[in-house]
Amino acid sequence: MIQKINSLEEYQAAYQKSVAQPEAFWADQAESFTWRKKWDNVLEWNFREPSIKWFQGGKLNITENCLDRHLNERGDETALIWEANDPEEHFRKFTYRELYTKVCQFANVLKNNGAKKGDRICIYMPMVPELAIAVLACARIGAIHSVVFGGFSAQSIADRIQDAQCSMVITSDGGYRGTKEIQLKSVIDDALVQCPSVKRVIVLTRSRTPVSMIKGRDVWWEDEIKKVETLGMTECAAEEMDAEDMLFILYTSGSTGKPKGVVHTCGGYMVYSAYTFQNVFQYNPGEVHFCTADIGWITGHSYIVYGPLLSGATSLMFEGIPTWPDAGRFWDIVDKYKVNILYTAPTAIRSLMSFGLDPLKGKELSSLTKLGSVGEPINEEAWHWYDEHIGKKQCPITDTWWQTETGGIMIAPIAGITPTKPGYATLPLPGIQPILVDENGKEVQGNGVSGNLCIKFPWPGMLRTTYGDHERCRLNYFSTYENLYFTGDGCLRDEDGYYRITGRVDDVLNVSGHRIGTAEVENAINMYSDVIESAVVGYPHAVKGQGIYAFVICTPHLNDEELTRKDILMTVSRIIGPIAKPDKIQFVSGLPKTRSGKIMRRILRKIAEGDVSNLGDTSTLLDPQVVEEIKSGALLSV
Ligand code: WTA
């Protein structure tokens, strides 16, 4: 088994060992998994290229570790529980054995449809069990999954499919979120107009909304399952993978316009997602783990699918939203399935807080033992509300800082062991060596200091490259500061050596825990016919954490502002997806630019924040007058 940390002393000892002898430390953890062949070399790395190789020469299949190896010991225990969007719809449960069978079946479907090791497969599905099954089936046959969140537009999907040259798409006819029905297949149809690489689309029946099915390209999930059943194909031998073979690609936003495909590999990701799951949440066998994220994000990959299943845990997935049919939905689910570990985002907590305590009436919540938070800084008010009203002051809260690129949790309290402080991710996990640097890349030493957060030594779960463009990976993460992985986050290390993440220092926004690049939103706004130029910044938002504020210059003949605003929103929805829609659009006649033509975002950020008293030095601006105009037209109410 993975070495479990049981006390603060053990944490310190593990941490020290992980720094003094990282290879021995991670080899010990890796020993607990099933390898077809053990590795020859634990770690080989440099951050210059970068080249990071963990467990080289090791052979494995992650699904043998998620499924096969549990069959003898816990084949009849529940692996996955699914709660539908509609509370009236019956839940579904899968034991490890059942999940194993489903994954094998669908893996055979993939093979029958021409998929093979190394192929990229795009998955665009609602939060139904088949999504987890599809992910695992890809991994079983060695195909690289690229899950795209169900809220992204056809254009975003097309970009991602083209970037990875996917040969197959797995989707469903439709899906449900609250009162809304989402037409997933129809979005895929629009996307595929631009994607000649896709030869096959497998469509799951979920809402049975009418869909187009193109002969020779589109097939129904259920029909394909029947075919493999008829052929008696119940088992599917797992493909043997090298530890450094790609496991998946997950697209995420950066400071440039185009999302990048973060690549994770089989061996290191497996060890790291399981290690962090078991230790951070202090997982005990038999516990029910409810991570409220969508599998379309890294949190769902690591802490709904891989981490829990690698650990033999019971993972609960929920199709719906926290506020439908009412704001007590999470709490009903907790009581219904006796959830022990609840892992959610500050934005959900803040949104539920705004409904007051009524939705908590009659809810027991007594099964809960540990609470987690992820995705954005948690403000103290939300932290205390979570602690008092959900955890009843009996459940440790673990505020987990990490990123798509890190594969798993990096800085977080070990639940119930590391003393917590509201708003602090506290201390780095074993194996993680954070360092703060100033603008010039000089290390900021000691405590009671702030800086840009970097990591100076590799860990098994880190990204290896960005798909199809290794140079981009180097430039983005490894070139800002020499020999360091740069996170893009600002951070404070207080007098006790505790870490507090203060937010992104680049042009990446965190809206309701979703990462969105300002450049991406600007590009989408600029697609609108009447827009000449735009600049997008974030501003503090009571529920979303950050809201999106767009300053837009339109052509002079504009007459109906309100309609134009709506058109722009629709354009952004079409180009990226509804999650990227600006909360505020201010029409301006010019943007504050330096003489060299650079937009001074610092000024726009201050205006968006409502802090116009001290805009700093504006003398270098091409046209200082424009600042006055923008100030006077600022949209300040939330
Ligand atoms: C932010 C989500 C403060 C941070 C797992 C990071 C956080 C970005 C926290 C990654 C936290 C995540 N406290 N900020 N506990 N967790 N972040 O890739 O800015 O969707 O860089 O991964 O979210 O977002 P991503």
Question: Describe it for me?
Answer:
This protein is an alpha/beta fold and 638 residues long. The chain contains 19 helices and 30 strands. Helix 5 packs across helix 6 (129-141). It is globular. The model has no long low-confidence stretch (mean pLDDT 96). It binds 5'-O-[(S)-ethoxy(hydroxy)phosphoryl]adenosine (WTA).
Which bin fits the share of residues in helices? 25-40%
Strand order of the largest sheet: 12-11-8-6-7-14-15-23
Question: What's the number of extended β-strand segments?
Answer: 30
**How many angstroms separate the termini?**
50 Å
The proportion of strand residues reads: 15-25%
Q: What small-molecule ligands were found?
A: 5'-O-[(S)-ethoxy(hydroxy)phosphoryl]adenosine
Point out poorly predicted stretches. Answer: none
- In terms of structural class, how would the helical and strand content be classed? alpha/beta
Radius of gyration: 24 Å
| Principal-axis shape | globular
Total DSSP helices: 19
| Arithmetic mean of pLDDT | 96
Largest sheet features: 8 strands, mixed
Give a short summary of the structure:
The protein is of the alpha/beta class.
List keywords for this structure.
31% helix, binds 5'-O-[(S)-ethoxy(hydroxy)phosphoryl]adenosine, 30 strands, alpha/beta, seven-stranded mixed sheet, single chain, eight-stranded mixed sheet, 638 residues
Secondary structure topology:
Blueprint: H1 8-20, H2 22-30, E1 41-46, E2 51-56, E3 59-60, H3 62-66, H4 71-74, E4 78-83, E5 92-95, H5 96-112, E6 120-124, H6 129-141, E7 144-147, H7 154-164, E8 168-172, E9 175-177, E10 180-182, H8 184-192, E11 200-204, E12 218-220, H9 221-230, E13 241-242, E14 246-252, E15 260-265, H10 266-280, E16 288-291, H11 298-310, E17 314-318, H12 329-337, E18 341-344, H13 346-353, E19 370-374, H14 380-390, E20 397-400, E21 434-437, E22 449-455, E23 465-466, H15 470-478, E24 485-493, E25 499-504, E26 508-511, E27 514-517, H16 518-526, E28 531-541, E29 545-554, H17 561-575, E30 584-587, H18 601-609, H19 625-632
Parallel strand pairs: 4-17, 6-7, 6-8, 7-14, 8-11, 11-12, 16-17, 16-18, 18-19, 19-20, 29-30
Antiparallel strand pairs: 1-2, 3-13, 4-5, 9-10, 14-15, 15-23, 21-22, 22-24, 24-25, 26-27, 28-29
The chain binds 5'-O-[(S)-ethoxy(hydroxy)phosphoryl]adenosine.
